[in-house]
Amino acid sequence: MISYTVLTPPGGADRDHASTRFIADRFVWSALLLPWIWLLSRRLRLAAFVVFVAECFAIFLIRQPGFGTASLLAILAIHALVALEGGNLHIRHLISGGWHMAGMEIAPDLATAEEMFFADLPEAVATPLPAASDWAKPNSSSTQGWSAPALGLFDNIGAR
Predict the structure, then answer these.
(1) Has residue 149 been placed in a domain?
(2) CA 21 to CA 51: how far, in whole Å?
(3) Which of 12, 21, 33 is nearest to 98 (CA)?
(4) Is residue 94 domain-resident?
(5) Which of 25, 4, 2, 8 has its CA nearest to residue 100?
(6) What is the pLDDT at residue 157?
(7) Can you name the residues that pair with 3 across neighbouring β-strands?
(8) With helix as H, strand as E and coil as C, how does 2-51 read?
(9) Are 2 and 26 spatial neighbours (Cβ–Cβ below 8 Å)?
(10) Is 47 exposed, middle or buried (0-12, 13-18, 19+ CB in 10 A)?
């Protein structure tokens, strides 16, 4: 089972929840292979820069005598750290950007997590439309004296 963190955008969830994000808390293989590129793809620029500089420093240390094994272990540790905690860093970045944590779902896959989350949401209250007889008729005195040609598809005579 995978735990998914559900985030809604800063202005609140839209009507059909198209912008609601589900971020899985799991090991990310692409972050293990190319951590700073994975961080850049999530718009975590500062973290990507720090990882890139740390990797460059570790690669520099590989060439120094006596530091080869330690620098290889440092590179492996950096990659593993981003692969394990990259999702959490992404969640924290979105929350600091104004996103709201709407909940957590534990499910075997994303589709099941979405079903579980959206099943718990309250139904939207439908407001009835006003009857046609309740509509106010346009005041004919406001358009008297209008003799200019119409621009576009519709004229302004009797319009709302």
Answers:
(1) no
(2) 25
(3) 12
(4) yes
(5) 8
(6) 57
(7) 25, 106
(8) EEEEEEECCCCCCCCCCCCEEEEECCCHHHHHCHHHHHHHCCCHHHHHHH
(9) yes
(10) buried
CA distance to 25, 89, 139, per residue, from 47 (Å): 18, 9, 62
Domain assignment present for residue 50? The answer is yes
- CA–CA distance from 57 to each of 46, 52, 64, 143 (Å)? 17, 9, 11, 76
Give the domain extent around 7: 2-119
Token representation of residue 69:
């094994």
State the DSSP string of 108-123. Answer: SSHHHHHHHHHHSSPP
- Residue 145 placed within a domain: no
Task: Confirm if 61 and 67 have CB atoms less than 8 A apart.
Answer: yes
Domain count, the chain: 1
User: What letter represents residue 39's amino acid?
Assistant: L
Flag residues of the chain having pLDDT under 50. Answer: none
State how far Cα 44 lies from the chain centre: 13
The backbone torsions φ and ψ at residue 117, rounded to the nearest 5 degrees and listed phi first, read: -70, -45
Tell me the pLDDT tens digit for each residue of 37-71. 999 999 999 999 999 999 999 999 998 898 989 99
- This prediction's pTM: 0.68
The label of the residue with tokens 């839209």 reads: 14
Per-position DSSP letters for 70-92, written without gaps between them:
HHHHHHHHHHHHHHHHHHHHHHH
